[in-house]
Amino acid sequence: MRLNLKLLLLPLCLISSCTTDLKRGDTIVTHLIVRPYSQPDIDQLLEYAMHARKLDGREISNEREQVRKNFQVEQSEFNRVKLAILLASTTAPSPATGTSDDNELGALLAPIVRVVNTQTAVVPANAGTSEIRTLATLIYALALDRKKVRDYSRDVQLRAHALRRDDSKEVETRALRARG
């Protein structure tokens, strides 16, 4: 019972000890501290991906050189993934080499992702530690799939060409037999 009474009297004592020296008409000055908003890295990278999709050939070439220079200066995960976004947004093979940037993309992202099996699985190097690593893993997996599709397409074209060549030889052989 005494404990309950003490608990009841405690807030009353605390409130009564608070005093304000404000009188009617006094002004209260408050200070608002504003800190600049710093956008998370993953949001910056996703916005950059949207920006990179809109670039045309010359712009993407200039942008790629600038991002490469930044990457050479500071080889952070952020700059590595930013360059990977540019490489991944180039869907056509490069006219200079005739190959796509998939090999460079794989080499660029290899330190961030850990390849479990090159045919099926890719996981972040430190699973679940960073959103940037997760994005890098996604880009890497998409590049791997794109490379598989290109390789398959090339194989199908080679087979079709070989079949057409065999067909033409067979037609010639039939024509010669028919004459002879």
Explained architecture:
This protein has 180 residues and is mainly alpha-helical. The protein contains six helices and two strands; from the N terminus they run αααααββα. A two-stranded antiparallel ribbon has the order 1-2. Strand 1 and strand 2 form a beta hairpin. Helix 4 packs antiparallel against helix 5 and helix 5 runs antiparallel to helix 6.
How many β-strands, per DSSP?
2
> What is the count of helical runs?
6
Q: Return Rg in Å.
A: 33 Å
**What is the typical, i.e. mean, pLDDT?**
77
Strand content: 5-15%
Shape: elongated
Largest sheet: 2 strands, antiparallel
Low-pLDDT runs: none
Straight-line N-to-C gap = 125 Å
* Helical proportion, percent range: 55-70%
Report the order of strands and helices: HHHHHEEH
User: Structural class given helices, strands, pairing?
Assistant: mainly alpha
Q: Going across the major beta sheet, what is the strand order?
A: 1-2
Layout of helices and strands, plus pairs?
Elements: H1 2-17, H2 41-53, H3 57-73, H4 77-89, H5 102-109, E1 113-117, E2 121-124, H6 131-179
